[in-house]
Amino acid sequence: MLEAEGANGRIVIEDNFVTISREGVTKLHRLAMRSQTGYGGEKRIPLTSITSVQFKTVGSTGEKLSDIWSSTPGLRQINQALGSSAGATDYIQFGVTGGSERGAGKGWFGTQAAIANDENTILFTKVQEPAFAAIRDHIEQYLTKRTEVAVSSATPTPPADLASQIKSLKELHEAGVLSDDEFAQAKSKLIS
Question: Which SS3 state, helix, strand or coil, does residue 100 take?
């Protein structure tokens, strides 16, 4: 099981499902989330429905903002109580079959607002980033394996070489499964 708690929710990967909970991480944050977006509950997505993972890492601006909020007395406690995304300028977003993920809005704040409200997206801070990177890596490995399996099953199996096919026919002939005529016809068909 993999789990990561971000600024506006939590992701759990267990068995063959990704569960996204947008309820909020603290009591006050839950209240704020409900007032902004309503109660979204949990969303369970089968891994087989995930088509992509978009992962934007916390940049230097986010790091600086997070450092300011974390090091300023009073602001840190407010940020924690609210489950605020101060410094959580970055996110993980799942592309899902048949889904329509929210992308960029107009300007930086429009982009953040659109992404923050997307049901397949969780914002995270620099401190939370490693847990979300582990989730990204796990899902990308799953997607890679799924692609390799699809490609290998679509690739036709090459026929056995001519010598081994003739040898098999000879064994069938010697065992009495093929008559002399059947053996000769099958052999000439292979050779031509």
Answer: coil
Note whether 121 and 104 are within 8 A (CB): no
Domain borders along the chain are: 2-152, 162-191
Report the distance separating Cα 16 and Cα 63, nearest Å.
33
Closest by CA to 99, choosing from 121, 120, 122, is 120
DSSP 8-class letter at 97: T
- What percent helix, strand, coil does the chain show, rounded to 5? 50, 20, 30
* β-pair type (90-96, 121-124): antiparallel
Largest interatomic CA distance in the chain: 95
- For 76-119, how does the pLDDT look when each residue is reduced to its tens digit (9 = 90+)? 666 655 555 555 568 899 998 876 655 544 444 445 566 767 88
Structure token digits, residue 12: 């759990």
Stated pTM of the model? 0.62
d(CA 44, CA 95): 13
Query: What are 70's two structure tokens?
Result: 């974390």
Measure the N-to-C terminal CA separation of the chain; round to a whole number of Å.
57
